[in-house]
Amino acid sequence: MPMQQLLLIGAGHAHAFVLEAFAQQPASDIAITVVSDSPLAAYSGSVPAWLAGECTLRETQIDVAALCQRANARLILSPASSINTQARYVALANGERVNFDVVSFNIGSTLARPQQQGENLPSYLPCDH
C-alpha cells in the first residue's frame, strides 16, 4: 500500500498537537507535510501571560520547525494560495504544488491591532496599573 500523504495547512496549536503525537508515536505509512508562512506560530493561550509580563513574546510561540523535525515532517515555508479538492492538491504562493490524501486547515491566530474608526483616536489603548 502506498504511503498516505497528510497535509497540514497552517501551524496553529491543533496541528502542533498532531505533530507532537506523531513525534511520540511515528507512523511509517504516513508522510506529513506542514505548510506555514513562518517557522514560528503564535499560541494565543499564552498571550495573557505575555501581557502580564510573566513570559517573553518568544515564549508564547510554537517552534514549528523543531516540532516538524521531531515528527519527521516536511515543513514548507510558503502560504497556500488555492486548493483543488478534485485533484487533491494545494498550490502554494511559491509556485509549488503539494498533493494530499488528507488535508487539515488550522490557521491559528494572528496578533494584529484592531482597526480604529473615527477621528482623534489614540494610537494605543491605555491600561491602568
UniProtKB/TrEMBL annotation:
<dbReference type="InterPro" id="IPR051169">
    <property type="entry name" value="NADH-Q_oxidoreductase"/>
</dbReference>
<protein>
    <recommendedName>
        <fullName>Bifunctional NADH dehydrogenase FAD-containing subunit/selenide, water dikinase SelD</fullName>
    </recommendedName>
</protein>
<keyword id="KW-0285">Flavoprotein</keyword>
<dbReference type="InterPro" id="IPR036188">
    <property type="entry name" value="FAD/NAD-bd_sf"/>
</dbReference>
<keyword id="KW-0274">FAD</keyword>
<keyword id="KW-0560">Oxidoreductase</keyword>
